[in-house]
Specification:
Layout (H helix, E strand, L loop, with lengths): L8 H7 L5 E2 L11 E2 L8 E7 L2 E7 L16 E8 L7 E9 L6 E6 L7 E8 L2 E2 L3 E4 L11 E6 L10 H8 L5 E3 L12 E4 L2 E4 L12 H12 L2 H9 L2 E3 L21 H18 L17 E5 L3 E5 L15 E3 L14 H13 L4 E5 L17 E2 L7 H13 L5 E5 L5 E6 L12 E5 L9 E2 L3 H9 L3 E15 L3 E9 L9 E10 L2 E6 L1
Parallel strand pairs: 11-12, 12-15, 17-19, 19-21, 21-23
Antiparallel strand pairs: 1-2, 3-4, 4-7, 5-6, 5-8, 8-9, 8-10, 11-25, 13-14, 16-17, 18-20, 22-23, 22-25, 24-25, 25-26, 26-27, 27-28
Helix pairs in contact: 2-4, 3-5
Length: about 525
């Protein structure tokens, strides 16, 4: 594949100076761009590790917030290398990729041929400019005995509402990998203030522009987030498994439906733009390449004989929220037999994976709470209808499958709530009979909902009214899962504040489950 398409003399002249890159007229010289500004201002990332490799990502953008991100309308070659050491004296793989304007000059390299279960380092060069290095760990060989895995769970990072101190601290953990459950960006217009449970506060920073709809809008919003050096450090520290939730497109969207009454055919245009921008900015494989207003997000992998990982999509195939998506309520629609959360194809795919899994722990890495938490004060039941609790039939179908097929050691990892939760899963949380079917850990937000507090009044009520719920906390931070064949430990890492960059991190609580016993216990 040629690194550049042919350009006319006039096209070459027009490209000179755009974003500080000059492309010489001679065809051979096109492979050596000359940069006036670094093209690697959005950092580097890796993702989707397998036993023989992983994806490495970057996006050329010398002027990230400008239209066209400071790049010429032409493909640009990017060199990459992977080394076994931090000094890059032992380079084990190298090559050249093409950063194409159709994909915002992003690069997704699927590195292969590496050794399983070991640490590698990677970097990119373009012309005389070199990126910062990144680190990634390959998965252990399929079925290999794994004594321990330590990985992170994080997401919900509203740029306006707090700094990314949690990302900086997560980077210092040197984790095996990170699962990002979504809400990587937020689609809303810039706001000077935020109003939440603690009242109205001044945002420490602000989105550029209005609500985002077009491909260029989404690209600039990602650029604003990715210019944050703490987020860049988190990406560079280890490989991520990335999924989305709602704010990558629009609040509480499902299927081809938003919550504002936009005609589905119009909303699909917005979905198409948002999905392309998501792909352009995430370290994901070619299998996730968008096809119009659709993208293959759900996928499966293993971490030796320890973890069987199912990354789910609870947005794209879900039926509309019942009861008009009102808060803390219920209605007949909650019991709709035709309701879907995963969609039939994904649900059957998940069942096949779970029943074939040989690993000790079966992980459902997804976005919305499975616990059927009663959120309404008083004797009447009320759910968050944007969770599995709003879809009683598919929820029961999933839990019955786990119970009836005796699929033990199933752990659900969730986000979206902007709070930490640990609890047990029963077919009916109002009547938690016998042993729990599975366990669920919900990771709080990186920054969404601002500083937060140790526990809100509604959180205390949830603990009182829901006996299967064992822990609740409303601060910002992330989760670390420390897993051995015998014990799964979940550490809830929290910050005292995200309103400035120097928030103090602590381990608020640790909860554990023993192999063969889904009960969640304080550790």
């Amino acid at each position: 594949m040629r690194p550049f398409t042919a350009l006319s003399r006039r096209g070459l002249m027009l490209s000179m100076g755009l974003g500080g890159v000059t492309l010489a007229a001679a065809r051979q010289a096109l492979a050596q761009p000359v940069w006036a500004e670094s093209p690697f201002q959005l950092g580097v990332a890796s993702g989707d590790p397998l036993p023989d490799g992983f994806v490495i990502w970057t996006r050329l953008a010398p002027r990230p917030l400008e239209m066209g991100h400071g790049m010429p309308s032409a493909p640009v070659p990017v060199n990459w290398e992977v080394a076994a050491d931090t000094g890059f004296s032992d380079v084990v793989a190298r090559g050249e990729a093409v950063a194409r304007p159709e994909l915002a000059h992003s690069v997704h390299v699927e590195v292969e041929g590496l050794q399983p279960g070991r640490e590698y380092f990677y970097r990119f060069t373009s012309g005389r400019e070199r990126s910062a290095p990144g680190r990634a760990v390959t998965a252990p060989a399929a079925g290999a005995a794994v004594a321990r895995a330590r990985f992170g769970v994080l997401g919900c990072q509203a740029y306006e509402q707090g700094f990314y101190t949690a990302h900086r601290r997560a980077a210092e953990e040197r984790l095996d990998f990170i699962y990002c459950y979504g809400d990587y960006i937020y689609e809303g217009r810039g706001n000077r203030t935020y109003t939440g449970s603690g009242g109205t506060i001044e945002n420490p920073r602000q989105h550029m522009g209005g609500e985002i709809y077009s491909l260029d809008d989404y690209r600039r919003r990602y650029a604003q987030y990715k210019m944050d050096t703490d987020l860049q450090a988190s990406h560079a520290s280890t490989a991520w498994f990335c999924t989305w939730d709602d704010h990558e497109i629009d609040n509480n969207w499902v299927s081809a439906l938003d919550q504002d009454g936009t005609p589905p055919e119009v909303f699909m245009l917005r979905q198409q733009a948002a999905m392309q921008a998501w792909y352009e900015n995430m370290p994901v494989r070619r299998s996730a390449f968008p096809r119009g207003a659709a993208l293959q997000l759900y996928r499966h992998t293993t971490w030796g004989d320890l973890l069987d990982l199912n990354f789910l999509d609870t947005r794209q195939y879900r039926s509309d929220q019942p009861c008009e998506d009102r808060w803390a309520t219920t209605c007949e629609g909650v019991q709709a037999r035709e309701a879907q959360v995963l969609g039939e194809a994904q649900e059957q795919w998940l069942y096949r994976n779970l029943e074939a899994a040989d690993a000790r722990w079966k992980v459902l890495a997804q976005q919305i709470m499975v616990m059927d938490l009663d959120r309404r004060a008083g004797p009447e039941i009320g759910h968050n209808l944007d969770t599995w609790a709003g879809y009683a039939i598919p929820r029961r179908r999933l839990l019955e499958r786990l119970r009836d097929r005796r699929i033990q050691n199933t752990v659900v990892l969730t986000g979206d709530e902007h709070q930490n939760y640990a609890g047990e899963l029963y077919l009916d949380g109002r009547n938690p009979e016998g042993a729990p079917v599975a366990s669920e850990f919900v990771a709080t937000s990186i920054s969404s909902s601002a500083d937060g507090q140790d526990q809100r009044a509604d959180g205390r009520r949830y603990l009182e009214d829901n006996p299967f719920l064992k822990f609740n906390n409303a601060q910002r931070g992330y989760v670390v899962c420390d897993v051995t064949p015998e014990v799964w430990r979940t550490e809830f890492k929290v910050l005292d504040k995200v309103s400035d960059k120097d928030g103090a991190l602590s381990t608020r609580a640790t909860y554990a489950i023993q192999s063969g016993d889904a009960r969640v216990m304080a550790a």
